[in-house]
Amino acid sequence: MVTTRPRRVAAPAPAARLRPVIEGIRPLVDGGRFRAKAAVGDDVVVEADVFVDGHDLLRCEVRHQCDGDRRWAAVPMQPLGNDRWRARFPVDAVGPHRFTVHADVDRWGTWTRDLAARVGAGQDVAAELGEGAALLAAAAGRAKGADRAALAAASGCLADAVRGLETDLPDLPDRLAAGDTLADLVFGGPLADLARRYGPSDTAVTSPPCPLVVEPALARFANWYELFPRSASPDADRPGTLADVVDRLPYLARLGVDVLYLPPVHPIGTTSRKGPNGAVIAGPDDPGSPWAIGSADGGHTAVHPDLGTLGDFDRLVAAAAERGITVALDLAFQCSPDHPWVADHPQWFRHRPDGSIRFAENPPKQYQDIFPLDFDTPDWVALWEALAEVVWFWMDHGVSVFRVDNPHTKPFGFWEWLIGAVKADRPDVLFLSEAFTRPRVMERLAKVGFSQSYTYFTWRRTKWELQEYLTELAGKADYLRPNFWPNTPDILTDQLQTGGTPAFIARLVLAATLAASYGIYGPAFELQQHAAREPGSEEYAGSEKYAVRHWDLDAPDSLADLVGRVNAIRHDHPALQYDHPLTFHHVDNDQLIAYSKSRGDDVVLVVVNLDPVYPQAGWLDLDLAALAVAPDRPFVVHDLLTDAHYRWDGARNYVALDPAAVPAHVLAVRPVRP
Amino acid sequence: MVTTRPRRVAAPAPAARLRPVIEGIRPLVDGGRFRAKAAVGDDVVVEADVFVDGHDLLRCEVRHQCDGDRRWAAVPMQPLGNDRWRARFPVDAVGPHRFTVHADVDRWGTWTRDLAARVGAGQDVAAELGEGAALLAAAAGRAKGADRAALAAASGCLADAVRGLETDLPDLPDRLAAGDTLADLVFGGPLADLARRYGPSDTAVTSPPCPLVVEPALARFANWYELFPRSASPDADRPGTLADVVDRLPYLARLGVDVLYLPPVHPIGTTSRKGPNGAVIAGPDDPGSPWAIGSADGGHTAVHPDLGTLGDFDRLVAAAAERGITVALDLAFQCSPDHPWVADHPQWFRHRPDGSIRFAENPPKQYQDIFPLDFDTPDWVALWEALAEVVWFWMDHGVSVFRVDNPHTKPFGFWEWLIGAVKADRPDVLFLSEAFTRPRVMERLAKVGFSQSYTYFTWRRTKWELQEYLTELAGKADYLRPNFWPNTPDILTDQLQTGGTPAFIARLVLAATLAASYGIYGPAFELQQHAAREPGSEEYAGSEKYAVRHWDLDAPDSLADLVGRVNAIRHDHPALQYDHPLTFHHVDNDQLIAYSKSRGDDVVLVVVNLDPVYPQAGWLDLDLAALAVAPDRPFVVHDLLTDAHYRWDGARNYVALDPAAVPAHVLAVRPVRP
After folding, report:
1. Nearest by CB to B363, which of A53, A83, A117?
2. Could you tell me if B663 and B641 are in contact, meaning their C-beta atoms sit under 8 angstroms apart?
């Protein structure tokens, strides 16, 4: 056996000596690869596992700043148990933000905790008091001015106590219990703060910066409304214009619309133009799809002559702003065969071996009126920059919200670059991802920068499906903000096709109360359009995508007043302006779904009958804690839709909802004051 | 409005163009900060979310190598659905390993898929065939030799087909269906492999290397046994020695022991030595605690003179090895007041203001016979290196397994450095973490390098507790290997104190069949020692920690034969040599727990009666898929403990277990061949 041996060990690195561990930080998206999302008005809640070997106590804090600030603000973290710590801080400045988690051994706290345990067990603590004096003396050495003097004086006082106490130690527990000055000195008060503040920091550990993006409150909460300007004409004999949309603004304001989203307003190609209901051959008067962008009149930076001029567009943006309505524009990065880029930049498109440009396909489906851009072209840098120019063009025309068409068919790297570049310049600008595709793809688009995302809500109909899906979304809340739509120009669900008014109301209430951002495609929604192109299809009959429609806003069955009421409730109730906390409550009837949200004192409880045909009733088992209601006190629920009031008592309450009346309760919950 | 504007966009970085995304890789511990664990004989199962924008198909593979190898081995990944991919590869070389996930757009696969869809829809595919010819020609340009010739020929053939097909395209579906050569050419066979192999790699993405550590199979599976050498004397008149342990080896071999773990064998201090049952004052003949290490006879690299010599130790290691038993040594990095380091390196200990060295404490608890080392001493580098010397000393004496005492009271950075340094030199050396502390701390010790971890198994007794805990451990399997112990010298649970033989058997079977690594502290276990020091205590009466014991191995109630049988079953059944897969099966009696493990053809189903007093019976609802049993075929279960055979049919089966007989079934499951 070898008992003397050459040294085989590399000396430990200095960092090995740092003892506290910081793990499991949230919010942190893919280890910091992407920014977690926050919006003005949010409290950012930071949590982390923080611990150290042995028995020492820790002090932990979150430090945060806007990127580029010189100073950090600090917030102490509170232990939640099981080595989990939490702090929260408000954000009010739009732009990139970051935070770190900072941990250090709390030598003073550890010393006082151990001293108390020793005193309690009647142990000799003279040497321990001497150690306290030494800790204070060392702290004094790191302090200045009055702090230094206070620490030095306290250290001397403790050292004196040691000398005095050596003879009368048995009295110490009584003296401490009696509130002796020494006890104050050691265990609490301003001295403890000083002792911690000037404690040694040689074991301090700081996490890497965790990136956040703070967006406008509009990213978190808004009532959206989509309409086709060419269908906004009050005159059945001519198509609508942007000027007509200006005239529509009072109606939209009555509906409580915050964001007015317009499909593309650009010139539409004629080559391979689609006809009514998407027919492959268009008639001479068919207007074509607004998504077949570009003609001799221009491309992505032009306004369709039939809709008006750039000046009309500017006037619409300004008039909407006066009513508090933000105009959102569609970004559909694709071209009609007549788009100026086809001639000017043929290299931006994919060609087939016969020299023809590939039209859009998802084989065997073919979209002959659209040429996809080839994001992978050797000339990709010029193409990407040209697309960025489009965004800046419309930003310069007052657009700060973009709804992006099919972002999942363009590279993630493109969006990350584009949105990053835009936000570096204009952090207030928002992008909504219209990607109805696979979960990982939708999540990635949210991570690379989209402020909001369309979701599967449209197809989630049963209680189980809705609860599962909202629970899944809660797990992505650090980076993905859902925007719920009961319908879109592409999606008329079979529920709306067959469920009648109860289905429209139920889907409206679900969307408007489950998600802080939601929208409807109107006037098709409030006018309860439910005819599909053909059985089994989710396409609207006579879809506005391919035809001009004229809408009778005064139709007697219009849900406009209900939409206005629901949106007003959302404006009045902060609980509905955040996605979380969302709590599902048990009802013993699978056709009834119940959930609540709260924000400060505002608590809203929603019950919806998912059955569009039959009245449904059942017993609610409320989670009273989620409603901030004491179990031994009655409370009042005020139905914000019908203005009815009910006095409830305890967790178990009976609910009945008739689809022939209003198939939902939206209840403000208020405790009855003693 | 500004319509012309200066360029405000930074050009995209070249990497922005790479389209595939790789996310959610596992195994990957804290984003690669730590090595995931594998053992010789494992299949490493790698999974990742891999996806790309649009509709293109991907090809994905895992590449892996031993650190330092020049070449990577590649394994194709298979899609599991929902953008999840999986591959597996075996590991057989001990040491650091790594893998990457590699993804690329499968242009050939995408082309053939789209072509099939187009043909199916009766579309004109002449241009598409031309594109296929171009893909093959480009691949030929990247290939050499025979591959190049084959690709060029195929490209020409396809191009010829285009020219020919332009006139008879309507036949194509029939020709493809009839197995025409063209179909073979396009859709399958060796050409497809070549086309993929030499496809363009300009969109290829590779994940960062993901680190693994491959450890000996012993890290995954072993029967452990702890004994105190000083209690191994066959002669009641003298304490045991290392030579007595050599004589005990045949007994241990009969028990099926793989790892023999010895508490510290070093000289024991006399200052403040503890007496029987941990008494503060020791009598003159009391031997003291083996964990109070160090006396005038030496420290951590010496053998207690009463146990023998270093030569005796070497002979024990060699004799054990001859029987296939590995000797594991205790690493308890602390000193008695008489340890040579106290005089030679006083700066390695913490001093109080009065100059005395601090003994170990967890206030108000005091351990006067032990001085903790001050890992944070200004002289920390020298201290850490001295501790490393201790490890190398014993490695040089044939020790390759260390059980580490209370690692959670030393800095994580110390263990990461020490274990990393040891494994760089001797990747076969294993460390078992004896940290009975908070979950995050136990997890971190596993992450920084410990091969195995003590667990809370000892205190998990109900079916719900056991299932919850095993499920929790499954979530940590990438880095934490549990080692289950029904008892230790510190822990005599109330179950064993009060449950009699049924409790001993049930806990033995649970430990031995739930975890691939388990151990008992004997002979206290097999001799069913159950007397506690005092009511409410988990300490053994007359604990061997403070006293020499003499054991009657021939006692009639010894469970040695049963332990031997259980350990033999473990040696015979690969299913029990891995922690996973572990499946719990439903039994309609909460006192009965049922679970199964499988490995290849080997399937073992275990049912245990958790009630030590009453017989319990119930209906099992078996997950037949987990048992690899066809639902429509009978199967045989063979009780490996009692040798009974039962013929079962279907998922629902009756079980009854009487604690007065054997309170457990360990059933080998075998389908009846048709």
Report:
1. A117
2. no
Helix (H) or strand (E) holding B660: none
Query: Which of B7, B10, B397 lies closest to A1 in CB terms?
Result: B397
The answer to whether B49 contacts A385, with C-beta atoms less than 8 Å apart, is: no
Instruction: For A32-74, give the secondary structure using H, E and C.
Output: HCECEEEECCCEEEEEEEEECCCCCCEEEEEEEEECCCCCCEE
The minimum CA-CA distance between B439 and chain A, rounded to whole Å, is 8
Options B61, B258, B434, B544, the catalytic residue: B434
Collapsing DSSP to helix, strand or coil, A313 comes out as: helix
Three-class SS of B444-488: HHHHHCCCEEECCHHHCCCHHHHHHHHHHHHCCCCCCCEEECCCE
State pLDDT tens for residues A307-349. Answer: 999 999 999 999 999 999 999 999 999 999 999 999 999 999 9
Q: Which residues of B touch A367 (CB under 8 A)?
A: none
Are residues A369 and A292 in contact, defined by beta-carbon separation less than 8 angstroms?
yes
Q: Which of B450, B495, B468 is nearest to B219 (CA)?
A: B450
Asked about A405 being catalytic, the answer comes back as yes
Q: Which of B215, B369, B405, B544 is catalytic?
A: B405
pLDDT in tens, B257-272: 999 999 999 999 999 9
B5 CB-contact burial (10 Å; exposed 0-12 / middle 13-18 / buried 19+): exposed
Q: Are A19 and B444 in contact (CB under 8 A)?
A: no
CA–CA distance, B414 with A12 (Å, rounded to integer): 8
| Amino acid sitting at position B356 | S
- Give the residue from B488, B466, B588, B602 showing the smallest Cα distance to B544: B488
Within 8 A of A161 by CB-CB distance, chain B residues are: none
DSSP letter at B68?
T
Which of the residues A244, A434, A579, A611 is marked catalytic? A434
Closest CA to A226 of A485, A531, A405, A19: A485
**Cβ contact A12–B83 (<8 Å):** no
**Residue A434: active-site member:** yes
What are the chain B neighbours of A380 within 8 Å (beta carbons)? Answer: 12, 17
pTM for the predicted model, two decimal places? 0.94
Structure tokens at B39: 């053992």
